[in-house]
Amino acid sequence: MFVLTNAWRAVTRSWVISALTVVVALLVSFGTIASLAILQEQSDAHGTDYNAQTPNAVLRPTAKTAAAMKADDAKSTASKYLKFTDYNPYAIAAQEKSVSFTYTFTETLPVRQGDTFKAIPGSADESADKTGGEFQLRSFYDAKAAKANDYGTYRIVDGKGLVFTDTKATGALISKSVAEKNGLKVGDTFKVGDPTDTKKTYEFKVRGIYEYTGDVTSTNGTTSDASTAKLAKENRENVIYTAYATAYTFGLDPDSPKADSWSVPDLNVIFDFTDVDTYNQFVRLATKAKLPDGYEITSPSLAAYEKSIEPLDALAAKVRPATWALAIGGIVLLLVLTAARTWFGRTDEIGMAFVSGVSKGRLGWQFMVETFMITVVPIAIGLLAGGFGVKSIGAALAGGHATPVTSTIVWTLVWDSLGVTIVLAIIAMLRVATFNYAKLFAPVAYDDATYATEVKA
After folding, report:
1. Are 208 and 160 in contact (CB under 8 A)?
2. Residues 252, 109: contact at Cβ < 8 Å?
3. Considering Cα of 275, then 279, then 280, then 281, what sign does the dihedral take?
4. How far apart are CA 412 and CA 423, in angstroms?
5. In this structure, are 207 and 124 located in the same domain?
6. How far apart are CA 420 and CA 375, in angstroms?
7. Looking at the structure, do residues 256 and 400 belong to the same domain, yes or no?
8. Start and end of every ABC3 transporter permease C-terminal domain (predicted)?
9. Burial level of 191, CB count in 10 A (0-12/13-18/19+)?
10. Per residue in 104-131, pLDDT tens?
11. pTM of this structure
12. What integer pLDDT is reported at residue 441 of this predicted model?
């Protein structure tokens, strides 16, 4: 009790230095655990988490090819669309090397608006005879194709999703914006016109109404909204989604479409892989088999993942140098504050304690307890606050990316903090251990003026 009481009195007597020590210990522990959690998550994002992805692969026009594909010129565009036969060499090459994959696909072609079913206009629309129509009709082979939609992920806000296996189904999904423009609700029907045969129409039933939850991920000229869409069909709000079985039954996947016309469907085959290594093997095989002129192989899912961790990378780039500065600067500052609290201005206090019969061991322990009082508790609070608070930091500064604290980080910092605290306590104790008893009996030097004043007194 004697040691604790005297230690507390000493701490409160030097309250400015003690308060600074508490603040520094809190900031260093909080900042270090939060920073390490962010850096560890960034490392995992490019390592174990990246390798755990289940990527897909598609053949897409290069930027140069896409720029030459005009939305109002079928000859410059539809002539570059790929067919199933263009994909066969890559599937065969993968099978020969036992590279496992699954696949799905989408087909897209323009369709014309009708008298009672209008698209959201573009900023510079042209005749449907040149563009093929104001809407885009995209058919999904299955749910996986819908999930990999390069126009952006979407959710159903009213109604139900598509049925992919029923050839008699006529259901389609329209955007909330198009539904509101045309006063349509789930269960209503609408007609669209063929892209090349102006006498032919197709009637669909509104099965669901959707809105987008993700961004456009391809270079197909499609934009997010009317403000940036030159043509109506370039606005993704004007995309009608249906099942491939429905489109095929309607004859919208013709066996021999007129060449270089908008009746040629834009086929997009999507290969799916169980891991990144298998995807990389497929890329090497596909490249070796020679890609179609003007096309490249990409992975929209990996691209989306890499985009999702960009805020985390940016945050980690700022945190990395700050972590070293915080840790090193904080420890140095704690050393200085400990020295200032114990090595300066306490000679009389130490001497008086010795004269009163206090042993060096007991006094040294008091100095160590003082150090523990103003470091152990603040460090513990800082680690706890940082451990729980870094999730909010990740959500706010890393684009919502999770930044959990791992057990490895926790235990590493617990032992490091314990080591730093013990070092600081030893430095404080050495002040007592190295005290020179001779100072207790050192003669007091007086000048003449001071001597005369004391004699008079």
Report:
1. yes
2. yes
3. positive
4. 17
5. yes
6. 9
7. no
8. 326-430
9. middle
10. 999 999 999 999 999 999 999 999 999 9
11. 0.76
12. 60
